[in-house]
């Protein structure tokens, strides 16, 4: 995330300004924050691979704990929902493609855990709480990944 985003980002709980907690693990290059912790008066949130995660759902809390312990790779695994080293290796290989997104790479890697369905799945079926809101529009690749296993 560009550091200028801190001028407009606000805590979803108290409305306060967020700042990079520079006393904790962080990785920045030029004006980009790649990994770290954002804090306000009430909460702290992880920045995982450049993405500020401004909620307190379980995956974000686990990711924040990994980030606090300077384990950014494990923070990313927590956010994506990867459960094993094997899934992480497949995810990293799939995510390396310039045309891939984290969502597509994750679905590809965890497809074996997705129950087969007779009709297309919703885009964010594995993570309904973090749904992208695209609904059925995201179905084709998800469905294809599930069918490929
Ligand atoms: Zn706050």
Biggest sheet architecture: 5 strands, antiparallel
Gyration radius, rounded: 16 Å
CA-CA gap between termini: 35 Å
Query: Helix and strand string, N-terminal first?
Result: EEEEEHHHHH
Which percent band covers the strand fraction? 5-15%
Q: What coarse outline follows from CA principal-axis ratios?
A: globular
Number of helices: 5
How many structural domains in the coordinates? Answer: 3
Mean residue pLDDT? 80
Keywords:
single chain; alpha+beta; five-stranded antiparallel sheet; 5 helices; 13% strand; disordered C terminus; binds zinc ion
Protein described:
- The structure is a single chain.
- With 149 residues, this protein is of the alpha+beta class.
- The protein folds into three domains: 3-80, no CATH class; 84-113, no CATH class; 116-149, no CATH class.
- It has helices at residues 58-68, 72-80, 85-95, 102-109, 139-147; strands at 19-20, 27-29, 32-39, 44-48, 51-52.
- Strand 2 (27-29) and strand 3 (32-39) form a beta hairpin.
- The model is unreliable at 116-122 and 136-149 (pLDDT under 50).
- Zinc ion binds at residues 11, 13-14, 16, 40-43.
Can you give me a brief rundown of this structure?
The protein is of the alpha+beta class and 149 residues long.
Detail the topology: elements first, then pairings.
Blueprint lengths: L18 E2 L6 E3 L2 E8 L4 E5 L2 E2 L5 H11 L3 H9 L4 H11 L6 H8 L29 H9 L2
Antiparallel strand pairs: 1-3, 2-3, 3-4, 4-5
The site of zinc ion (ZN) has 8 residues, from loops.
């Amino acid at each position: 995330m560009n550091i200028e985003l801190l001028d407009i980002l606000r805590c979803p709980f108290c409305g306060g300004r967020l700042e990079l907690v520079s006393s904790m693990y962080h990785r920045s290059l030029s004006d980009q924050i790649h990994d770290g912790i954002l804090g306000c008066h009430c909460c702290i949130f992880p920045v995982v691979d450049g993405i500020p995660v401004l909620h307190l759902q379980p995956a974000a809390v686990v990711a924040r704990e990994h980030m606090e312990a300077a384990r950014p790779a494990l923070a990313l695994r927590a956010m994506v929902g990867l459960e094993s080293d094997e899934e992480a290796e497949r995810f990293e290989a799939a995510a390396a493609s310039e045309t891939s997104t984290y969502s597509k790479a994750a679905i590809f890697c965890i497809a074996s855990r997705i129950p087969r369905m007779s009709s297309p799945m919703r885009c964010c079926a594995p993570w309904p709480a973090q749904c992208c809101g695209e609904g059925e529009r995201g179905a084709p690749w998800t469905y294809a990944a599930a069918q490929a296993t």
